[in-house]
Amino acid sequence: MIFPTFEDMKKIVTIIGARPQIIKAAAISRALKNEFEGKIQEVIVHTGQHYDANMSDVFFGELGIPKPNYNLNIGSGQHGGQTAGMLQGIEEILVKEAADLLLIYGDTNSTIAGSLAASKIHIPVAHIEAGLRSYNKSMPEEINRVLSDHVSSLLFCPTDSALVNLEKEGFELNRPIKNASIDHPGVYKSGDVMLDNTLYFTQLAEAKSELLERHGLKSGQFILSTCHRPSNTDDPTNINAIFNSLLKIAEESELKVVLPIHPRTQKCMDQHLSAELKRAIESSVKFIIIPPVSFLEMILLENHCKMIVTDSGGVQKEAFFLHKPCIVLREETEWVELVENGNAILTGPDELKIADAFEKLLDGNFTYPNYYGDGRASENICETLFEFMNK
Fold first, then answer.
1. Cα–Cα distance for residue pair 300/376, rounded to 1 Å
2. N or C: which end of the chain has fewer CB within 10 A?
3. Which residues of 217-227 are buried (b: 16+ CB within 10 A; e: fewer)?
4. Is the pTM of this model over 0.90?
């Protein structure tokens, strides 16, 4: 391959808007710097969709991600207004920067805003985590990921099941890069960039071990939980069922429960938890609620816990990467292979199902097949992007 001169350097605009996207972008930014410095310029746009200093700013320094070149400061709001503000801001930046390609991640409103803005002005879109499907269009994320896939020119699938999903929708797999376009997208299995990050950052995370000591946690003797999806937190019945289940696990097992609290979850707890349950949680020495943690601190907690209980898609995978069984507080998951292999159990906000899953996973024997690649997804993706932009 003949590399272009500096004058021919290509420009990628990367869209991020939420904590998981910042983390995923770390792997790609690292690969671009290590493998394509002087050949590809990355311009990072933070939409500000989810903005909190503890949940966002700290990651840029900790993960070595370049600070965003632009921040749209959109903030939270109704889907229509939020997405509309992003569309306008992203389009203006794409025109100003004369971007050669737009890079999007996952399934947020930032993802769909970026894909629509770029495709309408004929800038190719590359979608990382393409092909994921929950087959539940009541979830805004499902709408975002499906529509983004269908206006992208390059689709990077983390798993075989994602490839199968796209093939069912009429996409042709493994099209030559030179023939890839919005009308005939290139669909490729890249592996998962989050595996790259987990492998890269696990050792660095051990430097945060004082977090365990601060909260009196011993390796293998606590359950790690996260809960933030509106379907779980905004519904009084669901949030009470989930937190009652977590409290029972903490009080009736030999394990503590640790929950880094999402700002939205804290607000919903205050609004919706019964007074009796709230008092019981606050008085429990085994149910430990802590402030939001950084990515490295989260990896540390995941690496040292006994089991994970979550409604987060990313945390489900990290549990698998670090060989931890996982209770999924959802009715469906994009990561179907984890459920099929027995590494994760879907429970939704159902107390009986959560209790049953806990017993099944506590002493289970698990295998960890190579579903997500070899830890070089980011390099594979960047090589494909480079070839596409120089075809």
1. 22
2. N
3. beeeebbbbbb
4. no
83: which 2 tokens? 């997405």
The segments of the chain whose pLDDT lies below 50 read 1, 4-6, 55
Shared-domain flag, residues 241 and 357:
yes
Region of residue 371 (left: phi > 0; alpha: psi -120 to 50; beta: else) = alpha
User: Is residue 26 located within the same domain as residue 157?
Assistant: yes
Question: What is the DSSP pairing of strand 154-157 with strand 186-189?
Answer: parallel
Instruction: Classify residue 367: in a domain, yes or no.
Output: no
Give me the catalytic one of 46, 50, 228, 262: 228
Q: Whole-angstrom Cα distance, residue 93 to residue 15?
A: 11
Could you report how far apart the first and last alpha carbons of the chain are, in Å?
11
Same domain, 163 and 232: no
The dihedral built from the CA positions of residue 226, 229, 231 and 234, taken in this order, carries a sign that is positive
Q: How far apart are CA 66 and CA 235, in angstroms?
A: 38
Tell me if 368 is assigned to some domain. Answer: no
**pLDDT of res. 73:** 87
Look up residue 365 and give its amino acid: N
Structure-block tokens of residue 173? 């797999």
Tell me the HSE value of 259 on the side-chain side, using a 13 A CA sphere: 29
Residues 6 or more apart whose Cβ sits within 8 Å of residue 230: 264
Residue with tokens 């051990």: 206
Q: pLDDT tens digit string along 5-37?
A: 445 799 999 999 988 898 899 999 999 999 999
- Are 216 and 254 spatial neighbours (Cβ–Cβ below 8 Å)? no
Q: How many residues does the chain have?
A: 391
Any domain includes 197:
no
